[in-house]
Amino acid sequence: MIKNRTAQGYLLNTLVIAALIVGFAILKNTFGKAGDFKLIFAPSIWQCCYLIILAASLNLTLGFLGQLSLGHCGFMAIGAYAAALLSLAAERAGIYEDKKGAAFILVLTGCILIAGILAAIVGLLVGVPALRLKGDYLAIITLGFGMIIVNIINNLPFAGQEGLALGSASSSLYKNGLGFGTTLKVTYIWVAIAVTLISLAMMFMFVRSKYGRAIRAIRDDEIAASASGINTSYYKVFTFAYSAFFAGVAGALYACANATLSTSSFAFANGGILNSTFVVVMVVLGGMGSLTGSVVAALIMFFVNYQIKNGVWVRALPVWLQNVFNFPMLVYAVILIIVIMFRPKGIFGTYELSLRNFISDIKHSRQLQLEQKQAKEEVRSNG
Amino acid sequence: MAETKRIPILETKKLGITFGGLVAVSDFNIQIYPGELVGLIGPNGAGKTTVFNLLTGVYKPTEGSVLLNGEVLNGKKTHQFVNAGIARTFQNIRLFRQMTVLENVLAAFTKDISYNMFDALFRTPKFWKTEKALHEKALDLLSIFHLEDKADSIASSLPYGQQRKLEITRALATNMKLLLLDEPAAGMNPTETAELLECINSIRNRFGIAILLIEHDMSLVMNICERIQVIDYGVTIAEGLPEEIAKNPKVIAAYLGE
Ligand SMILES: Nc1ncnc2c1ncn2[C@@H]1O[C@H](COP(=O)(O)OP(=O)(O)OP(=O)(O)O)[C@@H](O)[C@H]1O
Ligand SMILES: [Mg+2]
User: Fold this and answer.
1) Which of A210, A215, A350 is the best residue to mutate to test the B interface, defined by the most B CB atoms within 10 Å of its own CB?
2) CATH number, span B1-85+176-258
3) Using the 8-state DSSP alphabet, how is residue B6 labeled?
4) In total, how many domains does chain A have?
5) What is the pTM of this model?
6) pLDDT tens for residues B151-193?
7) Domain boundaries, position A207
């Protein structure tokens, strides 16, 4: 019975994904050469892809394991630099000439994978000492580690403050290594989408297994978890490293999508979209403990960020408000406060959107609401 | 009963702990034999819960040792105590509040699940087989306390009495040899308490485990325990059969106050 319903779910998800891919391919073939698609749509999809992976992966630590980590972008930086440098090395070694063909695809997948593995190893090294701490202390120490990572990269002779744009490694990622220009971003858009889908699937499988149960138990009550035989430090460190792996993968996609890499884009708080606070806001907004919530929140936050920077309506606003928009961090902070005030569990709470159960879930929640209303009215009429 | 060479499953030797200057428990010695139901009683703040925390590795003893089946458990972590065969419940219920009733029990199987990341990621036959078997086992355990209908409810939504029962079920899922129950009947009415006792007895018969029970209600302990140990200010003041304990002047003094 269980297996049957699960099989149904898998089938449904596969069908929908296949339909989306076909639809997308048609869209791409029709508009692929059009300016809007090339200049706005495709880069946006790349950005959405790494934001989705980033948010979902932080949700593993923050939402499922219940540990506040503020250094997530540090792992992303490791992934980004690892992928970029590796691809440069591969190009100089003559493994591929131009960015097409089987050899390049191989290098590309290799870079993404190694970026993840390197980030996971560093995650392991950071996690072992850091996860002995809890709450605010953990937040502070991960924040510190995130900064240290970025600073170390900063001081590498071949990476540097100016990053891979002007550093000694390369004149520009854009021409060498992984960096994709607008045309290549369209050509390789399937890479971004496939990596995102695979990453999400891997996270879902993790969450829906003994691992997910163990870490949610730890989140709910660490003492009870260890009194139930769960090796809490093992599962905590493992999850931290697993989550860092996907941050590294997201970093590799970031390297593909950008002409230049600079460490300042991974700092804890910068004006841009890539900082650990922004990622935390995405997770909280979507719901701590809901991967689908993180996906939706990543899309929303991308949209907010895009509108703040490029929206036509912004120019119609009073000047002081436009000035506020020059500091996007302020806007994210306000969003975070609003979410915590009005919907502390985030949009989804711990609910997972599922195609199979969508309709029955909606019916169910309607019914719950009705029952609650009735209960309230009864109390009122009795009182 | 073969009195010759029965080995206790649990044995403590001069177990003690000091918090700063406060001696919470000292010179605590107990032997529990397979299948026994032993009561641990004492007035408020006597150190009963502290003994449980020492027996499960939540606190590290400042003196003495804990032996399970002759194996010294000192310095081990809580989950290793559980692996060795000691499970417990808590005085103030500690459930995995945001998880379902079923998941609460499944989580306690974690240490016995042998599939790895690969099996989980690729959903191998081994994964499905294990999950299915455990699913059934969990429902079976839940049926002891008639909780199987609530399998999909969120744990924190259960009424108080059922939360207590779920906590015991979760402890049973760890496949232990010794179960420590910290005031399982606290906050229950007499009917619920009677029902709970019945269940405790049936668990004992079904699984053949030993139970160490902390309880405030003297009459309850007197009824079901085979042996009782009394502590006051962390010191054992009496131990023996229920009838002996009921008559012991030291115990009466401790309970009525000197
Ligand atoms: N972590 C701790 N730090 C300091 N003192 C502690 C700690 N844990 C317990 N104590 C002290 O040890 C003594 C025994 O407490 P314990 O909780 O074991 O009592 P108890 O017998 O379980 O009481 P009750 O019947 O109220 O549950 C108390 O004085 C308590 O304040
Ligand atoms: Mg107590």
Assistant:
1) A210
2) 3.40.50.300
3) P
4) 1
5) 0.89
6) 999 999 999 889 999 999 999 999 999 999 999 988 888 888 8
7) 32-352
